[in-house]
Amino acid sequence: MSSSLLRLGQALHGNLGRYVAVKELQDTTCKHLDDHLLNASIKQSLNRKEIKYVSGCILKALSVLHDNGYVHADVKLDNIFVNYKVGSSHENRFADIKRSRVDSALAREGTPVGAPIWSSPEVIMQTPWNTATDIWSLGAVLICLIYGGDFNIFRPATVSHDHEEYGLEVLKQQFRYFGPFPAKYQEIAGPMTVTAILYLMQEIPRSKTTPFHLITEREVSKPDKEFISKIMEMDWRDRPTVKQLLKDKWFDDSDI
What we know:
One of its GO terms (cellular component) is cytoplasm. This protein has 256 residues and is mainly α. The protein has helices at residues 2-22, 37-43, 48-67, 105-109, 121-124, 132-147, 166-178, 191-203, 222-231, 242-246; strands spanning 35-36, 70-71, 80-82, 93-94, 100-101.
């Protein structure tokens, strides 16, 4: 794992730069790569130093997109490809970039994009989205890497991924761990969105929530919980930017 991670950052940054320039990434460019990070992390869990390195690489890659006015719109472990070979000339790539402009009709109209368990609340609720949705997805990726073994706290236990209410059940999980929505959310929420939020509050009262910050340190360390809690804000306006996250004290190695 480590040999591939050492090359991940430079490769992601370079490939995304070329992607923005040519406006297209062919699926065939990834055909020679060994695996994606979901499989890799299932085979062998990453340690905290590796998780921080991967997170930094993803943030640097997203910085290229966001600076050029794009949203990746589908950040997830199986879209990050890696090589296991030491000394290989093969490159690692950030794949399946939806290449949505921040000001595109898709974003303005709240068109659903990506897989729900990696998507932000605003995407699931089909409200306008922007680069902040990538920040939420990064947080979901980070949580999965910490737990390892393909465990995803947002994966519903009640319905399958092809069920018509799958997105709603994911939203309920998000609400359980990171809710509620702040009162100020009504400033940007339409009537249907407000109705959906009121439904969540009725379905999941405070007594049935599982606040992420209260998870034991045997599961997730205090520094990791604090960093993730900064990211996983239900109101996208409260999430930090890529550049703010890259400067966060969490990336210091003193707590490893």
